[in-house]
Design goal:
The chain is of the alpha+beta class. It is built from five helices and four strands. It is elongated.
């Protein structure tokens, strides 16, 4: 087992960085929230990995990871500590390999994985996330209703159904009223009203 020499200054420096709610994460969350996007934060989404996505959109199955340049070994900005440089290099390369394995597992389960570096422009990162969400919405919505179910018949003229009289209610308002000739007074009997709104069905 490799031995790490004590580096108190480096330990204190690393202890200041939490695993979640970092400044880049908060900036990205504020930007997406201002655009009307809602999401879950710091959530484990697969039982096959221990990875916890920083932002999760469950319905669209989009997982966003905001990676720090040091711990995830950004080739542009990461710098190895002078103490134990070789051990740090191995550890950080192992972190990158672990990230790649997590991405492969999540993609095999149908997740869209987006990784954002802490040095990326927050507006550009939000644009890429929204583009993935918009693509999902277009796929989920699918073709319009007429395309899936045949031509749109809402504008076609329909032959009115035969007007079927409604059965008389048990107790009708003035249902027992009769005209002078002994026939029911249909002016007050709801059963005499047409059951549809077509002009051809109105009782003459």
């Amino acid at each position: 087992m490799q031995h790490w020499d004590a580096d108190e200054e480096r330990s204190r420096h690393m202890a200041r960085f939490g695993r979640r709610d970092t400044a880049p994460e908060l900036a990205l969350r504020r930007t997406l929230h201002a655009r009307g996007r809602r999401f879950f934060v710091d959530r484990r989404i697969s039982i096959r990995t221990r990875a916890r996505a920083d932002l999760v959109f469950p319905r669209a199955r989009v997982a966003v990871f905001v990676d720090g340049c040091f711990w995830h070994w950004c080739e542009e900005h990461a710098h190895l500590p002078k103490a134990n440089a070789e051990l740090w290099r191995r550890k950080l390369l192992a972190n990158r390999q672990r990230d790649a394995w997590h991405d492969a597992v999540l993609r095999s389960e149908g997740w869209k994985v987006i990784r954002v570096w802490e040095h990326d422009d927050v507006q550009a990162a939000a644009d890429s996330i929204e583009a993935a969400l918009d693509r999902w919405h277009r796929i989920a919505r699918g073709p319009s209703w007429p395309d899936r179910h045949g031509p749109d018949r809402s504008t076609l003229r329909q032959t009115p159904r035969a007007c079927q009289p409604r059965p008389p209610p048990a107790v009708s308002r003035r249902a027992g009223a009769h005209a002078t000739d002994g026939r029911p007074d249909t002016r007050w009997c709801r059963a005499s009203r047409p059951s549809c709104g077509h002009l051809s069905c109105v009782t003459r």
